[in-house]
Specification:
The protein is α+β, with helices and mostly antiparallel strands. Helices cover 53% and strands 17% of the residues. The protein has 9 helices and 7 strands. The N terminus is likely disordered.
Amino acid sequence: MRKFTALWRAHHTVPDPKSAGPESPFPARLWYHSVLTSLAAIPSPTRQDYRRVVALAMTSALALAAIACLYLFVPPSLAPRVNIRWADEVSDTARTEIERQLELAVGEHVEGTTWAYDLADPSSQAIAAIVTHPFVADTHHIDRARRIVSDETRLGTTRIRGGLSLWRDGPIVPWLGRLAASFLVVSGLWFTTTGRPALRRLGRKWGRPRRVFTPADSSNTSA
């Protein structure tokens, strides 16, 4: 029973490193021996492991690049939300008719004669028709000089596009982005820790000069 207790303490307690010399007690030396034995038993990564991690890292990087291009070059599926201040002489009936003509949806009164709308047609021609309309006194979230919607404009609830825009605004693309980023981080940690011996071996192999066979070598081999 005493021997079992000593072995258990040796494996579950960390002794003082200063007492790890030849004159150190038996439990301390046994603990260090068990740690070294455990480390030596860990298999080193193989070339196949290296290739798998490289493939995972490259796939994750390509996925992140595709997601970045999707957000940069594909417009959102929902209409932008803009504010329009109408002229004081515009009646409710006339405003309703102008909203239909300018394709302004989901109107919401903000204050005074200012209303918020979903811009169902965010093209330059439609925005030019809004900013030049005689009954439109002012606009917000619209670049009047460039005839485009401002970058800080929030999205409304009216869906105006499909296809890739639906993927862009869906929940799957952000989830895939987080998953690819996690795989890329894990691959980087593997290369800096476990995969470092494999990288060293590959570096020594690639850096080793190749032998060039000559006709003399062929004759010696045949002989």
